């Protein structure tokens, strides 16, 4: 499956109930995605349960080898996967987008394979001996979102498989083909039943997955309201959970910055994937002394970044993935304009044009409690809030229920560390925003979820700790 045509043919539904897979840049139907039922979910769980003991029995080294073969398969089909991802999700091929995402799938798979997790000796002295082992949980249920459908799926799949679990994954309804394609490529080399995909509506298939007593762990990336529903649905079975939920990340710019030097970093922190990233910079607090200069430099940089159809090689920003998200961004920006906020760039979408394109938008001189600031816009619109006292900026950054990421922008590292220590977030970046590393744990605070992914902590999160103790 090394060509786009071969890959699309492999994942397009040939019969049964289907839904159109639509290119959000053009409105073109690119294929048919299967709408599966609870019965088909149960059959997938059957396959995963049957395969799990044998997969676990292979041992760590053999599972690592399988994951490297899966990474090789992803690499071999990388261009076809990127084209399908671009057509279905909308993100351009170039920039930190489709090719970048597929490359990330390969890297995160290899890292999950290679991260060491030896037996931990806890006590070894005259009082006794104890060591910690990590055992498979069983079947992991994964629910992936539409913004980074392939890479976030890998974040769920690769560590789960490494630790001896099998997986049943349900992708978002609007990016089903992308995840089916990724799974199909990996299943060219993985044993039968180890990795399974079921596509269908979240309120039917997703709900049944989270309520199943045969699922040992749920991994979910998505909105906070849906995360709360999953907590309730899984409670009866005491299902283990990793929840990476909504974010409304704050960045704080201190007065000593060089506005021109930080403009590019601020832009990509906010507008990577056209703003459709949980840990994107979504509200920016800038000190009064550099406010106008930061706004000017950021607008200057943003105006030069091309947006358009993802298959055109020059573009690095694309459409919003679905019309519902377009409408959310449009509503919030219009409300900000009506309140008297100043639109520095963008804010004027062509609502009649094909595709879900919303222009890169910067909104300045906005009240810190405007809806565009306090709601997660999840799109290419950044509110920029002026502050005079650092304590005020930190208070505003912390007062929302979200706590996924945050950032501090300054030339003074000691000051940056001091401010970071006061921010309520799972991650605080210094002079950047949103960058992830496969060995650095990632997850949220407050209503942005709980549990950690990546690295050693990510492997432990999909395993059962088992202490063996004695003398």
UniProtKB/TrEMBL annotation:
Q: Which PROSITE patterns match?
A: ALDEHYDE_DEHYDR_CYS, ALDEHYDE_DEHYDR_GLU
Q: Which InterPro entries match?
A: Ald_DH/histidinol_DH, Ald_DH_C, Ald_DH_CS_CYS, Ald_DH_CS_GLU, Ald_DH_N, Aldehyde_DH_dom, LUC3-like
Q: Which residues form the Aldehyde dehydrogenase domain?
A: 14-465
Q: Which domain of life is it from?
A: Bacteria
Any coiled-coil ranges, and where? none
Citing just one GO molecular function, the answer is:
oxidoreductase activity, acting on the aldehyde or oxo group of donors, NAD or NADP as acceptor
Matches recorded under PANTHER family: ALDEHYDE DEHYDROGENASE-RELATED (PTHR11699)
Which family does the record claim for this protein?
Belongs to the aldehyde dehydrogenase family.
Its recorded name reads Aldehyde dehydrogenase
Q: Which organism is it from?
A: Leucobacter massiliensis
